[in-house]
Structure formats: C-alpha cells, structure tokens
Amino acid sequence: MQDRPDSRELLATLGDYLEAELMPALEGPLNYRTRVALNLCRILEREVRLGNSFLLRERQRLCRLLGLGPEDLLPGALQDQVEDLNQQLATDLARDALPAGFETSAWDALMATTRDKLAIVRPGYDRYDAAEETR
Amino acid sequence: MSEAARVQESAIDRKARVADGLSGFLGAQWGTGVSIEGMVETSAGARRGNVLFDAVRDDDGSRLPLCVTYLPTLNIELMKISDEAALILLAEEGGVPVPHVHFASEDPSWVGGPFFISDRVQGETVPRRVLRQVAADGTGHQIVESLGRAFAALHQIPASKAPESLGRPSGETPSEMALARLAEQLDNLLQPSPVFNLGLRWLVRNPPAPPRRLSIVHGDVRNGNIIVDHGGLAAVLDWEVAKIGDPMEDLAWPCLRCWRFGEDRREVGGFGAREGLIRGYSEGGGHFDAHSFHWWKVLGTMRWGLGLAGQARGHLDGTFSNIVMAASGRRVAEQEYDLLCLLRPRGH
Other CB atoms closer than 10 Å to residue A84's CB: what's the count? Predict the structure, then answer.
C-alpha cells in the first residue's frame, strides 16, 4: 500500500497548485491550457472517488436491460465488462426490430448512466433539460 | 527549446511574414507604399488564420481597418479561399451582413497561403463577452430576429450562383447525406456509445421532409462566428464550411445547447427564444419547418458529440495531440445528455 497522500489527495494538491500558483503567473493560451489541466485534475479527483461505484451501477443497469446474469459476464476487469455490455447494447440498437418497450427502457438506463458520467466530468450540467424545447 | 517557446516564436515569425506580405500586396494593388500597423492575431480558426490590422497609405496617410483571412498551411483546405471570398460577396449582395471583401488571392507567396482581405467590422466575437455585452445592451431578441433575417436572405440566393466547388448532395437528400457522414463518425468511435446508437436510430426513423429547395447553407453560424456590436448583429463570419443543403440545418445549429455558453434557457445562442428566429426568418421570406428544425438539432448535437470524441482520438493517436483535444473526450457526455433530453420518449 502506498503512503499518504493517496491518489485523491495528490490530485487535489496538484489542482490547487495549478489554480493558486501557476495560473496567476500565466497569460493567454498557456493560462487557458492550464485551466484545462486544472479541470482535468478535478475530474480525476471525482473519478477516483466515484468511478468504481458508478461502473458497478452501469453494469447492473446494462445486465438488467439486456436480460443477462452474472454468469454471462466476461471474466476480467469491471471496465472491460461494461465496455462489452455497451457494445452489445449498441449492436442491439442497430437492429431493425426491437422488443416492445425496449427503446424506452434503454433510454432510462442510458439517461441514468449519463447523469452519473456528468457527476464526474461536469457536475450540474444536468440541471437543465432540453426536453422543454422539443416539438 | 520548450514547446511553449517554439509556439511563441513561430507566432512571431508568422506575424512578421504576414505583415511583409500584406504591405507588398496592398502596395502593388494601390500603387503606393503601405505600412501595416496594430496587427492582432485573433484566436479563431484552426482551419483559417485571421489577422486584424490597419493599412496606412504613404500617399495620402489614410488608415484602413482591415482583416486578412488566410490558410496557414496547405493541409485541410475545406474550400478554396477565392471561392470563400466569392461566396461572402454573394451573401453581401443578397443582404446578409458580412465584412466587405476587397481582395482575394490564391498566390501563396504573399502571406504563406491563399488569402482574402476584408473590412474589419467593429464589435465583439468572443462568446461569453458577446453575451455579457448583449445583456448590458438589451439586444438579445433583436439579434435573434436579425439572425432569422440573415438566414432568410442567404437561403433565398439561388444556389446556382454559388461557387461550383461547394459540397452538395448528389441524388440523395441533404439529411441522407448528413446521416451517412454521421454513421461513418460513429464507426470511428474508440469505444461503443449506445446513446449515439439510440440517436442514430431516431434520426434514421424520423427523417425530415426534403427541403422545398436546396439553398446555400453557411453551416456554422453560432455565437463565436458572428460579430455583435451595441446595435446588435454586425456580421456573419467564417464561411469555410458552407455548402448546398437544407436551410433548416442552418437555423438549428446556433440553437444547440453547446452554443449558449451557460444561457441555457435562451435557445438561440444564449440570445433569446426560438420564436424570434422564426419571426425574422418568415418576415424575410423563409419557410420554417418545425420537424426538420428539430431533426437537424438532434443531428447537430450528435455531430458535435462525435466531433469531440474525434478530437480525443486525434490526441490519442498522435495526429493532433494537446491537452485541449484530450479534454474534449471528457466533454462527450454533455452532448450525450443533451441528445437524450431531445429524444425523451413521449409522455415519459
């Protein structure tokens, strides 16, 4: 086991350094790129904290949607399993005929997963819902 | 030499080369010595270089505020610079607010690539600053209507007058053409995105009616590609992705959430509501089609998401590596979310 600071603490420290010490010393494109780097640090901090539990939830949703059990999962890393399940869903959605209600269930599962992704990469983005603009 | 130093130095070299070239070119055109002053390279355009400058004539001392648009390298030429210049003149003639083009040249020896020189229109172009200024001036609704009128003017120009090199559908409808390109982008993803597959499914099953007639479509009118002054919309810029297509594609594009820069409730570029756009467009003689507009909005949202994923791929495979491109990969989820909102099942 590594010594403290742990990954999350180090990412927080790295972000604080970029924000408080480096950015004020930079202008123009370098300031902008450093802001991007800072944002990536914040994303990684949240991913270290939340990523694994979100992947588990995504796997569960996809299994339910695709009617698969634990025995159907690829042996291996969680991330590879989720990618494989997403590939299966993508392939299903490309088929002409789908069971009744499948598209709506898929929409529900994908919306829940997308909100989880946003909680890591852009918290608060889902406060606005563009559905109000439709038709 | 560090990357930063290299970038800085090459910017200085380029600026000096452009200044020399402009002085030589304008001197030859006007038959007098010309000095180039106050050059500002604007950030806009990976596809085009833009430099604002003053040209001062030796003979009468007059000073003209101008802008040069050039191809920085000879790689991805979307449209010939001289065609772009011809198109802008055509749009001006049709009543679209654009910077007047004075000269165009395909000769790369002046500024390092083909270029055109136009008036420098005063105003703001940086999106968030534009929105702040518009809020202070109270010109949001006016800008939305002006955009509608500008689109109407552009779309009424007979497509036959456009430069022949403009992309156009051949046999298929504009929506079919756009869908084929989108499916290609989807195939190039580094990881599956069932959200985009759901989007493609909807697009394929809900095609818009073919447009009443094909029009010149600017293809990238949005906050960031327009100049806004205290009176409202001053000019439409960046014509290099124009094509012949469905007019509703143009109206839908500035209405994507990603071009509202935080002003989410103002559908048209963060400026105001759709109704003003439709009013301006109809008063200008355009025909608004609500389903087609929605379809192109869904398509545009997906296209932008796939574009961001493509930037991340370019970073990872080394074609165009930098931290901004890398970060784009983590912005795909925003477009996936907006796409799902637009596709929310009825009554759900």
Answer: 17
Interface test with B, best of A43, A88, A95, A114 (most B CBs within 10 A): A114
In a domain, A60, yes or no: yes
Domains by residue range for chain B, with CATH: 3-119 (3.30.200.20), 127-342 (3.90.1200.10)
Residue A125 to residue A82: CA distance in whole angstroms: 24
Which residues form the domain of A109? Answer: 7-133
Distance, CA of B225 to CA of B221 (rounded, Å): 6
Instruction: Give chain A's contact residues with B (Cβ, < 8 Å).
Output: 29-30, 32-33, 36-37, 39-40, 43, 83, 86-87, 89-90, 93-94, 103-104, 106-107, 110-111, 114-115, 117-118, 121-122, 125-126, 128-131, 133-135
B145 vs A: CB within 8 A: no
- Are residues B227 and B121 in contact, defined by beta-carbon separation less than 8 angstroms? yes
- What's the gap in Å between the CA of B289 and the closest CA on chain A? 11
What pLDDT digit, counting tens, does each position of B235-287 carry? Answer: 999 999 999 999 999 999 999 999 999 999 999 999 999 999 999 999 999 99
Tell me what the mean pLDDT of segment A113-126 comes to: 98
How many domains would you assign to chain A? 1
pLDDT at B99 over 90: yes
**What would the mean pLDDT of B14-29 be, rounded to a whole number?**
92
Q: What is the pLDDT of residues A63-102, one digit of tens each?
A: 999 999 999 998 999 999 999 999 999 999 999 999 999 9
The helix/strand count (H/E) of chain B reads as 11, 9
Residue A66 in any domain: the answer is yes
Q: Is there a domain that residue A2 lies in?
A: no
